[in-house]
Amino acid sequence: MKVSPTFRSLLASAVFGSIATAQYAPGQWSLVQDGHSGVSALELAIVSETTAMILDKVEHNSLQTDGHIAWAAELDLVTRTVRPLNPTSNTWCGTGSFLSNGTMVSSGGHRVVITGRNGLAAIRLFTPCEDKNCDIIEDDDVRRMASLRWYPSSVRLEDGSALIFG
Ligand SMILES: *[C@@H]1O[C@H](CO)[C@@H](O)[C@H](O)[C@H]1NC(C)=O
Known about the structure:
By secondary structure, the chain is mainly β. Helices cover 5% and strands 27% of the residues. The chain has two helices and twelve strands, in the order ααββββββββββββ. The protein is globular, with a radius of gyration of 16 Å. Residues 1-22 form the signal peptide.
């Protein structure tokens, strides 16, 4: 796999190293710091051809949103800009997978540390958009896990749904 220039531009907080590249593909990997993600990339998912979604725990990040620290962000891989996303619960130790329609599902998490709600039963949906008006959709009254889960795992199934287990 060859690394595209946009993908190479990543994050102060994410570390990309050489993972036995010679074994799989020719070419060089390099680590470039070119911008800042605003939140630590505890979890990172490429959610569209041009964007990555970053989730941290509720922590002392530099990015702010709505009068408090942000713990999630969308990184535009082309413009190298970030905008905060707004989960309402703590995503720390959650898991992620994709539905067959491209919507990313983040589930589980941790209790509140600084702000936000307990994320242990949370299910969060994020559908990337081009106009940057989309955000994480999270509503415990509409969808939540049946049990509290710290460090759950999830996997996409053949029918396009996601299995969350822990
Ligand atoms: C994908 O399916 C989920 C669950 O039904 C839904 O909430 C979401 O809006 C859908 N995404 C798209 C892009 O249609």
